Amino acid sequence: MTGAALSTARGERVATSVHPLARTGRVVLAVLVLLTGITLLLGYENKARCTGPEFEDNGRSTPDYGVRIERDVCYSDIQHLWIGRDIDHHVFPYVSGSITPDGQLLGGSVEYPVLTGLLIWAGALFAHTDAGFLLGSALLMAPFGLLTGWLLGRLARWRALLWALGPPVVLYAFHNWDLPVVACAVAAVFAVHGWRTDRSLAQRGTVAAVLLGLGFAFKLYPGAFVLPLALYVLAESRPGRLDWRAAVRVPLAATATVVLVNVPFMLAGYEGWRASFTFQQLRKVDFTTNSIWFWGFRPESDPDNVDFQSTMDWLSPTLVLLSFAVAVALGWWRFRRDGVYPWVGVSAAMLCGFLLLHKVHSPQYTLWLLPFFVLVQVPWSLVAAYLLADLAMGIGIFRWYYQLHAGLPSGIYDGFAAQAVTVGVWGRAALLLALFVVFLRVPDRLAAGPLPRRTPVAESVGATGDTRAP
């Protein structure tokens, strides 16, 4: 055999071999996805405890549905909203919808952006009871949870166990319709930092912007990450100079995505489409919102206190936007100091500002934050403390509701429930403030950018040995 032929034969053998590191990476991903699936199943079973065993004519679970959802800590917005939004009547969302002056949604309108409205409608399509609706919704959303586990595994390897085995996934995976939006946010990070391709940062940033736009059309919060992404592209697309053209493409792509998704609903039924935003504007600070504004200003925070509620309508969003500005500015200061704009850390800090200062803090919002514990090297002590505070809140709040509605003693000195709520509200608030700072200080381990596109030969010689992606 000639030297050239021998070289070719060796190359073919190398190209078709699989390096042990590549095989290990696949095992890591398989284990993470499997564990995520088990955790999602536990999450479904946790919520399904509140369904059946019998049903009323409208499909509502019985007996004692209103008692069980609080006493047994198995409440789900999915199951609960089967009644009251025309979901049980299979009305297509928004097109014929409206909202009353007191905030009651009618004609198929729901209080969520349009892609979540479509998801709700699809989950109910073959359902005739709230149990069927919960199951249908879970089947639609579970792939997004699995995808999130896979993406986080690619980006952070074993640290993704925080998602795969995270207590918040058990508590909240099927509490509301949040798994798709979380998947969009994580996929945007993956497009920038985990996608093995020869596409430029400007192109990857545009793809990430589209994903953030889709996330906005599920639940609004990923839209906040467009600005730090644009600044990252501005600073990093052409090292040593600012690439304004590439940076502008990011908000343009995100905006175009949002417009393309929303315009059909606006044209088909503007009043019903607008009702989802009006509902959120009309929502008051009360004991169901679990925010620092209600607990920190009692009794002035009573829902009937018009002056207080009016103040919250402008004060809360103003402070949220101010926290966004601080995070973005500190990120730029980091760029000037270190040469890298930490857009993932800035995005995480912005989310902390929103969770701390918004007038509503729903339990499932923890799912939004959990991937950032994976992507950013937050100290384990802070992660554990936050998960414990969230667990106290997630369990304590429903037990407290049960005591209130059952007429049982429910004061701070009367037992676990009120104490857990106190720990949950104020412990979580203190930790969000600490995390806001930590996210902006921790070095950005993803900032080196994506791995180069793999070739068969590269795989064979260990290209998968990078700690950021198996």
TrEMBL record:
Q: Where in the cell is it found?
A: Cell membrane
Task: Answer yes or no on keyword rRNA-binding.
Answer: no
Gene Ontology CC terms, in alphabetical order: plasma membrane
One protein family per Pfam:
GT87
Predominantly, its location class is membrane
**InterPro entries from the xrefs?**
GT87 (IPR018584), UCP010361 (IPR016570)
| Keyword match Transmembrane | yes
| TM region positions | 27-44, 110-127, 133-153, 174-195, 207-234, 246-267, 314-333, 340-358, 378-402, 423-442
Q: Which UniProt keywords apply?
A: Cell membrane, Membrane, Transferase, Transmembrane, Transmembrane helix
GO molecular function annotations of the record: hexosyltransferase activity
What topology in the membrane does the UniProt record assign?
A: Multi-pass membrane protein
Q: What family name appears in the similarity comment?
A: Belongs to the glycosyltransferase 87 family.
Indicate what this protein is called per its UniProt record: Putative membrane protein
- Protein species of origin: Pseudonocardia cypriaca
